[in-house]
Amino acid sequence: MTEIFFADVSDVQAHMSAIPSKWRECRLDRHILRKVDAGRYPDGDYWRVRECRRCHTRRWDDIDAEGYIIQKSYKYPDGYQLEPGSGRMGADSRAAERMADLQGDIAKANGQHLRSVS
Ligand SMILES: [Zn+2]
């Protein structure tokens, strides 16, 4: 059995501080995809391409004739992902990402609440 190699938390923290804040939003909250193109293959399956408004990641979907996604792939902008070989994002890596973003928000708020809580 192959053990999964997860990204080092300190690498994730460094990456989060290096990328634009709008990319951090994508990494944490998903992309905002808009339609770019679509079509049909000769065998009857479909394809579509969508692109993120914030980070310009492109997502390709191959879809069967009944609407099920057969395959999906992403093309990310340079620097969006961790360095190749850094390992997979696991729960600890995601938590580090979330905390880096949260601390940035708190620093930006400069002691004021981002939104009043009553
Ligand atoms: Zn995005």
Could you please describe the fold and organization of this structure?
With 118 residues, the chain is of the alpha+beta class. It has 2 domains: 50 residues, no CATH class; 48 residues. The protein is built from 3 helices and 4 strands. Strands 1-2-3-4 form a 4-stranded antiparallel β-sheet, with no helix packed on it. The chain is globular. The model has no long low-confidence stretch (mean pLDDT 90). The site of zinc ion has 6 residues, from loops.
Key traits:
118 residues; alpha+beta; 3 helices; 24% strand; binds zinc ion
Q: So how many helices?
A: 3
Task: Calculate Rg over CA atoms.
Answer: 18 Å
Order of helices and strands: HHEEEEH
Q: Residue-averaged pLDDT, rounded?
A: 90
Q: Report the end-to-end length measured between terminal Cα atoms.
A: 51 Å
Rough shape?
globular
Q: Strand percentage, roughly?
A: 15-25%
Number of domains: 2
Tell me how many strands there are. Answer: 4
Brief rundown of the structure:
With 118 residues, this protein is an alpha+beta fold. It is built from three helices and four strands.
